[in-house]
């Protein structure tokens, strides 16, 4: 039987031996990729300058992870810290890469063996003789082994008891090295930047995993729980396993992007928030101020700033500056950093020290503005020279360098001053070699950005995979279809006893009432309508989730009732709207209650609608012949969102005003028709009385009419 690509896994659903085989093969693929990727990176990696051309500037992805776990030396005789080594030992970068490839080959052979010898006695049920898996016991085994590995890593590897330790550095990424870590058992262990928390958390989590694994190995689940969680279904294992994976992916994406002790900046580069908050700039100024307090000259104080610290304070190392579609390392963008030119200090002709306003993260270009110590603009590079008042030429700005290669050099030529002012927008100024790699000058992201993007994407994919497979195993009867023989049992309203055709309902009314009923029946066909409503086929799997649509309708009816009540007091004018809402909340009888119910039922209606859409999608309620139901549902969803947008503007408060201004301004980006479309929505060029009138009419008349 031919299978589409997304159904090929059904081959191993009921085949325990080959299910094991494909998992071993997957492990082989992952280990093989890691080993081969490590060898490729080692082939292109240049370890000559760990300060200005570290691994993260060169786009290394797996070398930082090996270094984080204690690998620092190479069989090539170099060390990641910049020195040379004579005896790197077995566990060098190349040794780890080779071990992964050997492990991959062994897993490959094991996978083939298990594919061929799939019919093993271990996979047979002793009672029936058929292939089967004791999934709760397998869960206990895996949990126990994972607990042992977790405990061992924290208690031995990280602490250095039997292992190298991990990479530990100071808060500014200057003194990093591999060292043993003592577990942090106090409240400080919950600080993500404390390395001791890594050891203590692995020990604690490993201990819990070992105990939980032993529990699941020795205690059988109760039958109700076994059936309720579908523990006998292999797809349940898939769904719950995916849950663990997407949770871990979200966690590591967060720790990588926001920074933590597990993602040192020496290995993965700075975070974007360190640029946004001026983290390294503040530390540099603190050190300079401390030097000046010790009677050092400005030149001496700046000369003592480590080049490594200055390099962190450069926007080109911000992982958020690179676009998702800009392939290549950071060195392929702005070039290879060669040296620090020094810190530029700008002064006007009156001797005031000026500071260049730095470029925010999400700007490609930014106006050059120089401010004094009080934040007053004193100079700029104007867009229109004819109207300029603060140009470099008019203000007489000069620049002098302190520290670095240009220490003591000053410039007064306006063109040169403007050149360095533009470069000072990007942080500390460095000489960059763009010729070697033919760098194009467009910023790239660091491995920190790529890791975060990749793991966040896979986490979202696995999250929806968890929902999908969980729904498939919980609503298995829906996906499999309904037995047509169940018709007599599920016809609701036709029998007094469900499924018993001998108990068909009979009318036991007095004769005169029967005559009245018959008179109306002849003219209105009441029975046909009643049968159509009450004699629907109801599947046996119907549960509370099928009530979400009715709850949404109830919320809508509550909206209609409370909204109608408020129209007696609300005045749709820009001068009286806000005051009328205040009157409803403070003066009108139960006005506060009516408006609160209206507001919260609106939020509840949107929430119930979203959950209802998920329920319909996950249970296949949109399939033939219910396509029109799905289409009308989408239309109603759009109308519901329109209710929210129009209703938000009616109180005429700051939140409502700016929400409407922003939402109605979005179409302006559309070429040609953008501006007319905005005026059509607002009724004028700006948000005013015409906008309020339109939104009030839509909210109270047009949208309810369309919804009904």
Automatic annotation (TrEMBL):
The protein's name in its UniProt record: Cytochrome b/b6 N-terminal region profile domain-containing protein
Domain called Cytochrome b/b6 N-terminal region profile: residue spans: 516-708
Residue stretches spanning the membrane: 20-40, 98-118, 139-162, 198-217, 237-258, 449-468, 544-570, 600-618, 630-650
The organism of origin for this protein: Ilex paraguariensis (yerba mate)
The keyword Transcription is annotated on this UniProt entry: no
Pfam families, alphabetized: Cytochrome_B, PSII
Primary location class: membrane
GO cellular component: photosystem II; plastid
């Amino acid at each position: 039987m031919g299978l589409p690509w997304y159904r090929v896994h059904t081959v191993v659903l009921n085949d325990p031996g080959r299910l094991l085989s494909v998992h071993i093969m997957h492990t082989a693929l992952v280990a093989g990729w890691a080993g081969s990727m490590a060898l490729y990176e080692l082939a292109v990696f240049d370890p000559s300058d760990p300060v200005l051309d570290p691994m993260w500037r060169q786009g290394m992805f797996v070398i930082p992870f090996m270094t984080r776990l204690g690998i620092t030396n190479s069989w090539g005789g170099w060390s990641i810290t910049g020195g040379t080594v004579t005896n790197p030992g077995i566990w060098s970068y190349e040794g780890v890469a080779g071990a992964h490839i050997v492990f991959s080959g062994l897993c490959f052979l094991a996978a083939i063996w298990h594919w061929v010898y799939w019919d093993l006695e271990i996979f047979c049920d002793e009672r029936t003789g058929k292939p089967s898996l004791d999934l709760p016991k397998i869960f206990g085994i895996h949990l126990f082994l994972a607990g042992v590995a977790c405990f061992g890593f924290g208690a031995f590897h990280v602490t250095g008891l039997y292992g190298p330790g991990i990479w530990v550095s100071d808060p500014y990424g200057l003194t990093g090295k591999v060292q043993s870590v003592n577990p942090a058992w106090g409240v400080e262990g919950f600080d993500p930047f404390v390395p001791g928390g890594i050891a203590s958390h692995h020990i604690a989590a490993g201990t819990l995993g070992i105990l939980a694994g032993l529990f699941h190995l020795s205690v059988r689940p109760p039958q109700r729980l076994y059936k309720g969680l579908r523990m006998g279904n292999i797809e349940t294992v898939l769904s719950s396993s995916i849950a663990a994976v997407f949770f871990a992916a979200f966690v590591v994406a967060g720790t990588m992007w926001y920074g933590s002790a597990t993602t040192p900046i020496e290995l993965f580069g700075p975070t974007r928030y360190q640029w946004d908050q001026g983290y390294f700039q503040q530390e540099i100024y603190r050190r300079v101020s401390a030097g000046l307090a010790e009677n050092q000259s400005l030149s001496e104080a700046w000369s003592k700033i480590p080049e490594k610290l200055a390099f962190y304070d450069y926007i080109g190392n911000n992982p958020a500056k690179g676009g998702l579609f800009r392939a290549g390392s950071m060195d392929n963008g702005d070039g290879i950093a060669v040296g620090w030119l020094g810190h530029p200090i700008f002064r006007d002709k009156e001797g005031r020290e000026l500071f260049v306003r730095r470029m925010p993260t999400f700007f490609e270009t930014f106006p050059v503005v120089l401010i004094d110590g009080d934040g007053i603009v004193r100079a700029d590079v104007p867009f229109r020279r004819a109207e300029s008042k603060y140009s470099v030429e008019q203000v007489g700005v000069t620049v002098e360098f302190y520290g670095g290669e240009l220490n003591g050099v000053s410039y007064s030529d306006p063109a040169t001053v403007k050149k360095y002012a533009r470069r000072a927008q990007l942080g500390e100024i460095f000489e960059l070699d763009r010729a070697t790699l033919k760098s194009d000058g467009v910023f790239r992201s660091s491995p920190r950005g790529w890791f975060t993007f990749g793991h966040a994407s896979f986490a979202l994919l696995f999250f929806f995979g968890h929902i999908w497979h969980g729904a498939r195993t919980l609503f298995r009867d829906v996906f499999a279809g309904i037995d047509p023989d169940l018709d007599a049992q599920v016809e609701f309203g036709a029998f007094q006893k469900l499924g018993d055709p001998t108990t068909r309902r009979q009318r036991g009314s007095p004769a005169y009432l029967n005559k009245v009923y018959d008179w109306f029946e002849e003219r209105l066909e009441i029975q046909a309508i009643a049968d159509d409503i009450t004699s629907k086929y109801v599947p046996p799997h119907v549960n509370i989730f099928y009530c979400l649509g009715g709850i949404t309708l109830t919320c809508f009816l509550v909206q209609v009732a409370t909204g109608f009540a408020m129209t007696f007091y609300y005045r749709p004018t820009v001068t009286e709207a806000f005051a009328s809402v205040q009157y409803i909340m403070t003066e009108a009888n139960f006005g506060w209650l009516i408006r609160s119910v209206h507001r919260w039922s609106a939020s509840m209606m949107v929430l119930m609608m979203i959950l209802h859409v998920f329920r319909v999608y996950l249970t296949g309620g949109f399939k033939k012949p219910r396509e029109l139901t799905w289409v009308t549902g989408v239309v109603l969803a759009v109308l519901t969102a329109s209710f929210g947008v129009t209703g938000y503007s009616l109180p005429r408060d700051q939140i409502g005003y700016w929400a409407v201004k922003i939402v109605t301004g979005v179409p302006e980006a559309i070429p040609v028709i953008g501006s007319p479309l905005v005026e059509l929505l607002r009724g004028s060029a700006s948000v005013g009385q015409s906008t309020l009138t339109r939104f009030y009419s839509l909210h109270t008349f047009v949208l309810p009419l369309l919804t009904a």
